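User: My notes are a mess, but here's the protein and NAI's SMILES. Can you give me a structure?
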Amino acid sequence: MADLPGIVIMGASGRMGQMLAQTVLQSDKARLVGCVERPGHPWIGRDMGEAMGSAPLGLCLTDDAIAAIARAQAVIDFTTPEATVATATLTAQARAVHVIGTTGFGPDHLQRIKAAARHAVIVRAGNMSLGVNLLVQLTRKVAAALDADFDIEVVEAHHRHKVDAPSGTALMLGQAAAEGRGVALSEMSERGRDGITGERARGAIGFSAIRGGDIVGEHDVIFAGMGERIVLRHVATDRAIFARGALRAALWGQDRKPGEYDMLDVLGL
Ligand SMILES: NC(=O)C1=CN([C@@H]2O[C@H](COP(=O)(O)OP(=O)(O)OC[C@H]3O[C@@H](n4cnc5c(N)ncnc54)[C@H](O)[C@@H]3O)[C@@H](O)[C@H]2O)C=CC1
Ligand SMILES: O=C(O)C1=N[C@H](C(=O)O)C[C@H](O)C1
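Assistant: No problem, the inputs look usable. Here's the predicted complex:
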């Protein structure tokens, strides 16, 4: 048991944090060695099991990320961009695998993650599920087969608490579409239409976001042509799919060379 990779969860009280804790606890391939929350969080000092409403685990939530990460072979991090970038420095120092599920990064955050990946294994993906990563590959393939007579639109829907848009998944899908078409997403992306927008630009890749209720995560990639339309769709109904993917990435990352990887690497897609 003590030989199994030790996992620390950042943002342990969150929607994903709790799902991750349960997934690691149920696994016979890893052990939960730390649960970290932000300073001032009301769960700090409480037993993680009790805080989640179940039996005590003998593991208390802490805000001491450095001490927790020192015990870890892998850190699974679904938090915020600022928290994740700070954690990347710590995981690089500790040489622990850093699995990043957080979304909403800006260019500066991404640069800092890239720098940390010179010293540590980082697996980062806006979506850790098998289904979405398959959808990424399908999107790339369909986009490569069609020309700009087919308008590409990425539509995503999430719960009311989500703070970033477009979702990380939508951006992965848009990036795959752009790659399939051989264009730069930064030059073709069209977001936030409102008012008299003018006609759609030929070749644009459009994004729109729906927010409401408890929607776990839904993504459509629409290829709309004249007289026909292809729709590639993924619907997540359970956050366990993301947690399973993240744990798989943490195990896959053990003994890899430092670098920044994604779920396509982990899944061999
Ligand atoms: N890549 C994927 O497959 C998925 C990614 N996500 C992303 O994961 C992130 C988190 O999502 P949720 O769990 O729904 O959010 P959430 O808000 O429920 O959880 C985030 C947690 O991080 C904690 N946190 C913030 N700063 C921290 C710090 N400095 N140290 C430790 N903990 C800190 C917060 O207190 C909170 O408990 C979002 O960016 C979301 O888009 C969510 C689901 C799947
Ligand atoms: O915030 C969420 O909930 C999710 N975020 C990820 C994203 O931004 O795509 C993945 C999933 O869709 C759920």
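The chain has a mean pLDDT of 97.
User: Great, I'll file this with my notes.
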